[in-house]
Amino acid sequence: MTATLNITPFEEWLPGSAQPMIIAGPCSAETEEQVMETAFGIASIPQVKIFRAGIWKPRTRPGAFEGVGTKGLQWLQKVKEQTGLLVTVEVANPRHVQEALDHGIDILWIGARTVVNPFAVQEIAEAIGDRDVPVLIKNPLNPDLTTWMGAIERLNRVGLKKLVAVHRGFSFFNRTPYRNAPMWEIPIELKRLHPNLPIVVDPSHICGNRELIPATIQKALDLEMNGVMIETHISPSKALTDKNQQVTPAHLEEILSRLILRRETGSSELSYKLEELRSEIDKLDEELIDILARRMKVVEEIGIYKKVNKVTILQLKRWNQLKQDRIEAGIKMGLSREFILKLLESVHEEGIRRQIEVMNRDEP
Ligand code: PEP
Ligand code: MN
Q1: Residue 175 and residue 153 share a domain
Q2: Is 164 in the pocket of ligand 1 (CB under 6 A)?
Q3: Across the strands, what pairs with 231?
Q4: What is the pLDDT of residues 214-235, one digit of tens each?
Q5: Which CATH number goes with the domain that contains 293?
Q6: Structural domain harbouring 64
Q7: In terms of Cα–Cα distance, which of 85, 102, 226 is closest to 167?
Q8: Which of 207, 231, 271, 300 is most buried, by CB atoms within 10 Å?
Q9: Is residue 4 domain-resident?
């Protein structure tokens, strides 16, 4: 069952805003100069209304730069006063909430590592309580829509209505070109269930590198997502965290100027459905390729074994038995005999080729 959400449209609380909502700023606040220079660069881009910076950084391993802590809040206050941008920071516990609100932070965000934990989200929700502050909720690290929605519902239940979901991609066991697999079907399903909940896409954490960012933003807008949160640093190569995925303010301006803002097509149901199915196919193909590559590795190992033990490559009895077994299994799964045979023969041929290569190598 899906609880309905009571959401205030962001156009009502974000001054001067038109879709899409653009949030930009460094992964981490590092020094006052870095924060201010980045903020002035960003403030000259009219589409950007919100400045982001992490001051308490959740790191995968201890000992890495864990953020400048509370003193960064004063830098953000200065950004607010001197640029007019609204400011947002990540909060992971009630103390962060208290300190951020005491320093006039306009918008709070809850990170992917916190959203996975309903205890933590509940504590944060209660700490914010009736202070009517907007909250951005990232998706959890794992591809789990229920946990993401659960976090949003917890905040909504304490009376917070200025809520925005942030899609930052998901940990996925297969290697993909992305740092966090976008799995567009998940935010699409969230939009279908809660059409009134704005969704902002974080291409920086999805992509993990600058090159993929423009296409990912365009895709987000084509899917009628409501905005972007993009990591922006005055000097990305010197960034203390996430250096490969940050862009300069000038680059951000260029990326934004090249975006094509399409009008709503009116056929979004159809395009969502198609996208959902395509995303499913992409994932399955990745798995298929991964499995084929793993199979070939095993075939090579067998080749080495055959070479060392002076056994012939082609073992006809085994091959005939394998064919028969696989065809039977495939037919049970609704695949045609011709298709499986073609597939097996092609895989087998490549396996033989690999084993011949192994035989011809100087070393086993
Ligand atoms: C961030 O935005 O810098 C961050 C830590 O993101 P996430 O929680 O999505 O990993
Ligand atoms: Mn980051």
Answers
A1: yes
A2: no
A3: 25
A4: 999 999 999 999 999 999 999 9
A5: 1.20.59.10
A6: 10-262
A7: 226
A8: 231
A9: no
